[in-house]
Each structure stands twice: as structure tokens, then as C-alpha cells.
Amino acid sequence: MKIYDFSNGDELHHYKKALVLTFRGSRDVLSTGPDNGGFRKDLEAVFNVDINPGAGMGCVMRGKTYEEHMNVIVIEDLGLDPSHCSGLCTAASMDNVSIQTMKYEECAPFSVTAIVTAGIEHNGGRVGEPALWHETGEEFCQVKPGTINILLHIDANLDAGTLARTVVTCTEAKVAAIQELQAPSCSSRGIATGSGTDGVIVISNPESATKLTNAGKNSKLGEYIGKTVMRAVKEALSLQSGLNPKGQHDIICRMGRFGVTEDALWEYYKEQGKGTLSRAEFMDRLDRKRKDSRLVTNASLYAHLLDQLDWGLLDAGEVWQAAKELLVFPDLEKQETAEKVPEELPEKIQVDKEATIQWMIEQYVNALSYFKEI
């Protein structure tokens, strides 16, 4: 089914769990795809395909290598010429695509369209974290549910260098969108910058009368790339997994990357002998409080203080002086809570950043356990 018409005649189709962008003329393409990746001038189509066979099921290889696997999909499912197309794969559903377009219609008109599928709830990561695998040339890494794939269509004539620069701006926009949502890494306590399998394909139009040579964020082209990609990434994450401001307004979402999870709170509750609630009763009461405005605000500020300590922007003493004020929760007498919060950091951990962070996490969990009804 055709779902979008571009200003230069190109078309976007949705079929066989794929989004296929077909060209109606010569196009310059820069792709991170395994098949025909890099800079190409001879492609006829690009695509993004969902290879997730179903919940809890692993991907079944249809070829000996990743490239062969993709070529089988291209030929048997998509009906394309494998020598003249490039594509990306994901486990995110194509039904959850976001398409965002902006047109500049004054002097040197052009358009930018971002076509994004996204999901990082199971494989979100922060750049620079310890790697999960090393390429041997013989193994295929199973795709987990997720990945942020971006098809960026630009109806303007860009030279090869400018086309490459669009990837920088596009990536900055993707990271900015994730940062604004405070999406957690699944491999550390950091904020995610993407997933380990993200991909991008940029298409420009050498037949366009508008020639642009700058895709940095100070240029109008860069601005439009930034805006369309940010909007599309946010909408796609919301559609795929409910990652949006409403969903993130939750103390577990804000502090979960530090180990403050439902399971951790329940275990602490049992260990401390705080009461006689069953797990079901405990979860019911936690669910009624986890989105409390004051609690979420305090959790957000507390998490950012931990980040600043982790990044070396504030020292342990500075962080604790501010953090302890956030542990006096509403619905409790201030004196009652204050008595539970240490005035100073223990001397033995002040020079150990990791120990300080873990101690502060424990103080947060302890203070939260005194909140009324929890």
C-alpha cells in the first residue's frame, strides 16, 4: 500500500512488514545498511524491514550471512533488485512508523522528510559503554526488539560531503530526542544515546534545482533535519513502546536506571519489615503513588544530581547537600523524615564515587519506604 508521496515523485510503500521507498529518478544515497551500504548513485529503492517473527521468538536466518539474509528478503518478500537497493532491519513494527515533513518554500526551496521506526526499551545503550560483542565475520547478532532506523529523504541536490554531514546532524537530533525523554540505557545507569543497532539512510536529489552545501545545525537544512528527526523519533518511540512524557512521569522510570525498580522496592520492604502487605497490595499502593507530582519531581532532581556526580561536574559533598533536601517527601511530617536522612556523607565513602552513588541510592529507597501508604 502506498502511504506517502514525496515532492519529487518518489513514493513510500508499506507491504510485507517493510517500508519501501522507491525512486522516480536518479538519487544519491548514503546508507549504513549491510547491502550496498556507503555512498551510492545507482540505487532504485531503499527500505526498512521488520524481521521480528513474533514475541519471544528469535530471528531465523534465511542466508549464511547477514547480507545474504537481507538479499533473500529483498528478492522473495519485497520484489526488488538486490544490486540496486539498500535497507535496514529492525524488530520494531512498521505500523508504528512516524513520518515528519518540513518544506522550505522561499529562495532555494527544499523539503526534508524523516521516516522513523524506533524502540529502545530492550536494547537502549549509551555510547562508550562496554561492548556486547565483537565481529568475527562469521556470526550474526540477533536483533532484539527495538532499534532506531531513520530514512531521511531530502529533496535538494547535495554533494557527497554535505550528504555525509547530514548523518551528523541526524544523529545529534536522534540523541537529543532520547535525552529529552530521559530514556535509560539497558547496560548502565546512564541515559541512552540510541541502541547498538541503529541505522540511517539519507537520500538526496541530484536532479533538484536547489543545491545546498551545508547541513550543519546553523543552516536552514540542518534546522529542518533536526526538527523532523526529533519529532519522528519521539513519536515512533511513543507508538512502539509508550516512551513519552506521560509514561516517563513516574518515579520508577526516573530512578530505574539506578536500580530503583519495583522488585528492588519490594525486596527492601520485606527486608526492613515495614509491614505485612502482600506483593499485590504493595504493588497497588506503589502504583497509586509512583506518578505523584512531587515524588516525580524529586526523583528527577535526585537522578540528575547522581548524574552530575557520575560525570564529575559536582563533588560528593555538593551533591549530598542538595540531595538530602529532596528526601523530605510530602505527606510526612518534615521532622519525621529528616530524622531518617543522614546530615553528612560517611567519611569512608566520600573519596569513592561509586560507593557514594550506591549509598545515595540506598538513602533514596530508604526515604521512599517512609512515604505514606508505601
Automatic annotation (TrEMBL):
Hydrolase in keyword set: yes
Keywords: Hydrolase
A Pfam family matched in the record: CbiZ
Lineage of source species: Bacteria, Bacillati, Bacillota, Clostridia, Lachnospirales
Listed GO MF terms: hydrolase activity
PANTHER family: ADENOSYLCOBINAMIDE AMIDOHYDROLASE (PTHR35336)
Protein name from the UniProt record: Adenosylcobinamide amidohydrolase, CbiZ
The keyword Transit peptide belongs to this UniProt entry's keyword annotation: no
